Amino acid sequence: MRVLVTGASGTIGRALCDALFARGDDVVGLSRNPGSARQANPRVTWHKWEPTLERPDPAAFAGVDGVVHLLGERIDQKWTEEAKERIMESRRQGTHNLVQTIVALESPPKVLVSQSGVGHYGDRGDEIVDESDGPGGSFDAQVTQVWEAAAHELDPTGVRLVVVRTGQVLSTEGGMLKEMLPPFRLGVGGPLAGGDQYLSWIHIDDEVGILLWALDSEKVSGTINASSPNPATNKEFSKALGRALNRPAVMPVPGLVLDLKFGKEFGRVLRGGQRAIPKRTQELGYEFKHPDLDEALRDVL
Questions:
Q1: Which pTM was predicted?
Q2: 8, 39, 57, 110: least surrounded by Cβ within 10 Å?
Q3: Contact 171, 202 (CB under 8 A)
Q4: 3-class DSSP assignment, residue 247
Q5: What are the beta bridge partners of residue 276?
Q6: pLDDT tens, position by position, 125-147
Q7: What residues pair up with 5 in beta bridges, in sequence order?
């Protein structure tokens, strides 16, 4: 199989490329700086692409069977007006440009697997939500709506589309866990802003597993959640991380600290969360390798 991956140099993208190579697939990557990307991963065939400014070169899609679209400006930063525009446009315009190239191809790939996030559901307290639930009203929920709408521009073509709403990915290479490890290893970690908010998490192996499954399985289309069937509160997650590291996890992080680091708007989002379950993912037949939080953290660490 020949797979084109956007965001191939990110945490999820690197793990996905490794898995694709391990099973004998060819990988094509799109990058703003293909020279640097080639040095980091020479096994990928790189093509240049400025996602918000242009459509990717159709030549990059030659012989491509499937596309995995992971590209997007990181959302865990202060939400200044400039940052919010970058976050939004990297997904809206970037996805639009990608899809419109696919639409125009004489021989399009069979499937597009397009990333989204469980932030789509907004802050829902302890309410259980799944793929059938509507969006929240926060900025991150608005971002997922335009992101998914741009992917759905593919619908009239008949190319199979899978939208993957991903939770917090557990990996030591990036994301939330990498940020949490230094204080927790020093024994000064603890829950954020009280810790009652739910956290929808997923082991990196299951994130990659779901992306590969979505690529390969013709029965999989539409929206699926990539998150463990056992979401945890932030307090439960902190205790589990402390157990995995054999360190105490009793030093709470006040909400004010979140506001100072991320700004008040994103700080409010971090005080909330989603208790998202992968109902449709499991109904379609995906079996999680790491559904239990304690085991997942031990494995990652």
A1: 0.95
A2: 39
A3: no
A4: coil
A5: 129
A6: 999 999 999 999 999 999 999 99
A7: 29, 68
CA pair distance 235, 239, nearest whole angstrom: 6
Instruction: Residue count of the chain, please give it.
Output: 301
Q: What is the rounded distance in angstroms from the CA atom of residue 259 to the CA atom of residue 218?
A: 44
Give me the DSSP letters along 48-99: E--TTTSPPPGGGGTT--EEEE-----SSS---HHHHHHHHHHHHHHHHHHH
Alpha-carbon distances, residue 42 vs 34, 38, 48, 133 (angstroms): 10, 5, 15, 41
CB-based contacts of 13, cutoff 8 Å, min separation 6: 5, 6, 7, 29, 70
Contact 103, 154 (CB under 8 A): yes
- CA gyration radius, the chain: 19
pLDDT tens digits, one per residue of 266-276:
666 677 799 99
Locus of tokens 């191809």: 105
Beta bridge partners of 48: 31
For residues 145 and 95, the answer to whether their CB atoms sit within 8 Å is no
